Amino acid sequence: MSRYRREQLNALGYTFEVVPADVDETPRIGESARELTLRLAREKAKTVAAQHPGCIVIGSDQVGVCKGEILTKPGNRQRALDCLMRYPNNTVSFETAVAVRNLDGLVYADVITTTIKFREFDLTEARNYVDLDQPFDCAGAIKSERHAPLLFEWVCSDDPSALIGLPLIRTSSFLRLVGINPLRKDDPSTH
């Protein structure tokens, strides 16, 4: 789980342990971004659940799509700039999946699509953004909780938190289905 997802769950008061899921994230031939991210979230939850029986497990994944091409984490400054310079005056979609696996192996899963319309911007602005945020570990080089919104014209999503890495509205809904609700900590039936 990325540090961004960890921060999201911590902010809402969830108690959890982070366990890395070693899954092959290579897209399958003909697999859409939505299918890829949902498959990976499910596989991550399944892999961790096998290592930790008796635990409720959250798996998640995020990919971006620009002009039909899947966007990954750039890893370095130059790749981040190359990615960003495809965005001016274009629309980019981010598919963010979450899978919550209960104690019986039942999986609740969904994908939230966040669409961003980027304004026109130049290389100087892109460089300044990259230098400020260093979004090398973010899908599509977009760190929405920092300076990336300065490049946006608009954003459309059913769950604004999804762009950070985890759709908290959907995740919380699934966790309530399996009996976890930080707003009911005093109620023993929700633990």
Task: Give a verbal description of the structure.
- The protein is an alpha+beta fold and 191 residues long.
- The chain is built from five helices and five strands, in the order ααββαββαβα.
- The protein has helices at residues 3-11, 33-51, 77-84, 123-133, 168-177, and strands at 57-66, 69-71, 91-101, 107-118, 152-157.
- The protein has a five-stranded antiparallel beta sheet with strand order 2-1-3-4-5.
- α3 crosses α4 (123-133).
Provide a brief overview of the structure:
It is globular and about 50 Å long. Helix content is 30%, strand content 22%. It is an alpha+beta fold and 191 residues long.
Task: Itemize the secondary structure elements and their pairings.
Layout: H1 3-11, H2 33-51, E1 57-66, E2 69-71, H3 77-84, E3 91-101, E4 107-118, H4 123-133, E5 152-157, H5 168-177
Antiparallel strand pairs: 1-2, 1-3, 3-4, 4-5
Helix pairs in contact: 3-4
> Segments where pLDDT lies below 50 for 5+ residues?
none
Count the beta strands. 5
CATH architecture call: Alpha-Beta Complex
Task: Report the biggest beta sheet as strand number plus sense, adding barrel if it closes.
Answer: 5 strands, antiparallel
* Mean of residue pLDDT values: 92
